[in-house]
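Let us work through a complete example step by step.
Step 1: write down the sequence.
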Amino acid sequence: MSDLPASATPRTGAATGADAVVTSAAMDRLTARLRQESALVVAYSGGADSALLAFAASRVLGTRVLAVTAVSPSLAASERAAARGFARQYGVPHLEVCTDEADRPEYAANGPDRCYHCKSALFDALAPLAAAMDARIALGTNLDDLGDHRPGQRAAAERGAVAPLVDAGLTKADVRALSHELGLVTADKPAAPCLASRVSYGDSVTPEVLKRIEEAEAALRRLGFAVCRVRAHAQGTLARVEVPAADIPRAGELREHIDKAVRGAGFTFCSLDLAGFASGRLNALLPLIVE
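Step 2: predict the structure and record it as tokens.
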């Protein structure tokens, strides 16, 4: 393995014994996979997966890597700032591009294939950069993502994008373990999918609804709920708040503050989901949708 930049020296004791062997093997597989590329444009949101990929790719390929963040109303300002900060901290070449998915009727309609149209807009923006660098587009998809409802993967296949983390056999747990080993600040970062993923299927995705969700979730984090989701229903009038099951009693105690914060963001109604937070909860509506 090549030398690590000083800003990403492995943490002492990050992995020992069998865990260290597994982590080292995973890094070796990822490094070997990245060496197969001449250049890469990494679709970089700043989450744990794309951050590891961007960092590892820049380590292996140097200046032949460009991490690109798509900027649109579906990207929370806090996530944009975090992506910028990570790239600066670890010396990853970084660029922001504006994407036009919000202007595409198929995306705004928010059917089960919304993510396909979102990723298509992303690839349309990245393609000229990739062509100029004679590079391929790489996504931070991991093995665990393959079993979920992710229409964007079809768009990726159509555009010839690659998924080095999948090719290296990395799960989400592997991504976090490697990130810990490398000392990356994203190792324990909670998942933060795009804001549009909070809008109930069939309800229009509009900049106004996305802003409402962003402001409500920011308010919840200020109340101490580091992991939370505000799911928008009934054309953006009803907010269904999800927090981890262990936080539900505290959410009950703070119900007046939560209600005030969510309504202050522009929702008419605020509810607390007693089942607790889980990724992809809106996918439960897919069997009810008649196309």
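Step 3: interpret the result. Residues 77 and 214 are 8 Å apart (CA to CA).
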